[in-house]
Amino acid sequence: MPPEGTTAGQQDGGRCPGCGSVSTSISRTRALGDHDGALRAIVHALKYDGRRSIAPALSALMRQQGRPVLAGADVVVPVPLHWRRQWTRGFNQAALLAEGLGVPLLHALRRRRATRTQTALPAEDRQVNVARAFVVRKLARVGVKGVCVVLIDDVRTTGATLEACAQVLMEAGAREVRALTAARVATRPRGTPRP
Length: 195
What we know:
The chain is α/β, with parallel strands linked by helices. The chain has helices spanning 37-47, 55-65, 67-70, 83-89, 93-99, 123-130, 141-144, 160-171; strands at 29-34, 75-78, 109-111, 134-136, 148-156, 176-184. The radius of gyration is 16 Å and the shape is globular.
């Protein structure tokens, strides 16, 4: 994924300077910060402890810090959970975060098959895990055609889930797809030695 606030393909001939991959379907991306310390604890409390009361404050911070990504957006689209996971959890944390961003919310995507949790997979397997896992809902096709969509999720790790969602939105006719997350897992550029 491109660095915060940059456009995919802006640098290095269409390659992401952080990971070296070919440019993505996502034009801009932003997160509140790295997925560690207090931010990690907050996201985990929302997602795994069911502390839904955290969502409005976290969403307000995302709205403030994500202004460059939200500016001019027509709709925000939460990354969907598979229906079984949402039933077990009782909510979709991405949808809760999307509700307070001040942009119309559209549940445009459906996860058509259950996938393994991305956190349990090495980076190289994540893209395969979510390939063709998402579809645009039939009734939402009109809502995404020709518009600027901002995908919303709690954590961006490798960006594979966001990219899979962005691809189907672009195929459905979205004019532009951006992404805003509460946290990002910091990655080292290729060739950077470990500290």
